[in-house]
Design a protein that fits this description.
Elements (H helix, E strand, L loop, with lengths): L9 E5 L12 H13 L4 E3 L12 H14 L5 E2 L8 H14 L4 E3 L9 H12 L5 E5 L1 H4 L5 H9 L5 E4 L6 H8 L4 E4 L5 H6 L4 E4 L6 H12 L3 H18 L7 H11 L16 H16 L4
Helix pairs in contact: 1-2, 2-3, 3-4, 6-7, 9-10, 10-12, 11-12
Length: 301
């Protein structure tokens, strides 16, 4: 669970972003969604992640999304904006904007305009760390083609540039090497479908997708998976099995459309995505709808 000293811990939901029919940002609906997640037991939100379609937002829209999240957040509720950008100077400016808005930490991808080398990656994190907000590194080598390996994370951590890592490589074995090389670096679950495995490996946070649709059940699963208590793990396992057909959509190419569709099925405001994301193919939409309905039918919410 997050604390004022470590506000990046706990369940931070990578929030989906609601749009009006003309695909302009619906800030009223986003405000309501942030409050819904807080009421559902989540510890914070991560606006302007890929799930929030930040790549399609204008600079003005992106800044206002952060401001809306901070204004909607109740006391003690974390706001960890994504500050990814092609250049380190631009990423630093987004971190400055987050700090000015009142965010509690930031989530930072490595440089992703090209396959950056180690020196460029370290320089990138140095630039953003100058702002002073706690920086959570985001390792997504699938999309960025830059891998924050355990030894590189250790270098970033020991220099004081990052406090945690959102681990999205899918390789749960890394958790143990990260802990060995960088004791004190917080491990955050980066993909919904490895929640239990990384929880067992010592994760202290989850930057999550599916709580957008079913916050109460997923937060409960996280608490059980990370408690370190054998009885809690035994209780978590059947829940994880029930939810896993849904959670694995978070790691698919269509994860934004999938989670928004699941939100719609669950009675939340998901809605359409901005281009270049297109509506799901009918057969895929039917599968995700069926997976969501199956979870809801078992009483998860």
């Amino acid at each position: 669970m997050s604390t004022p000293e470590r506000p990046w811990r706990g369940v931070h939901v990578a929030t989906a972003l609601p749009f009006h029919d003309d695909l302009s940002v619906d800030h009223d609906a986003y405000t309501e969604h942030v409050r819904f997640l807080a009421d559902g037991g989540c510890d914070g939100v991560t606006p302007n992640g890929s799930l929030g379609e930040y790549q399609t937002l204008t600079p003005q829209e992106r800044a206002r999304v952060v401001e809306t999240a901070v204004q909607a957040a109740p006391a003690g509720f974390g706001v960890m904006p994504g500050v990814a950008a092609y250049g380190a100077i631009e990423a630093r400016r987004w971190a400055e904007q987050a700090a000015e808005a009142g965010a509690t930490s930031v989530l930072l991808l490595p440089p992703n305009a090209y396959r950056a080398d180690r020196q460029a990656v370290v320089a990138h994190y140095r630039e953003v760390a100058r702002v002073g907000l706690p920086v959570v590194a985001y390792n997504n080598p699938i999309d960025t083609k830059v891998d924050l390996t355990p030894d590189l994370l250790a270098e970033l951590f020991h220099e004081g540039l990052v406090v945690a890592v959102k681990e999205f490589s899918g390789d749960v074995r890394r958790a143990y090497e990260i802990a060995e090389r960088a004791p004190g670096l917080d491990l955050l679950v980066g993909a919904d479908d490895v929640l239990l495995e990384l929880g067992l490996a010592g994760a202290v946070g989850w930057i999550a997708g599916y709580p957008n649709a079913i916050p109460e059940s997923t937060v409960r699963l996280y608490r059980l998976a990370t408690s370190g208590d054998a009885a809690d793990i035994a209780e978590a396992l059947p829940i994880y099995r029930d939810l896993h057909p849904l959670l694995r959509w978070d790691s698919k190419t269509e994860f934004v459309q999938s989670i928004k569709l699941s939100m719609d099925v669950a009675g939340r405001r998901g809605g359409a995505c901005r281009p270049p994301r297109l509506p799901l193919a009918p057969e895929l939409a039917a599968r995700i709808t069926a997976d969501t309905e199956a979870v809801l039918a078992k009483g998860y919410k």
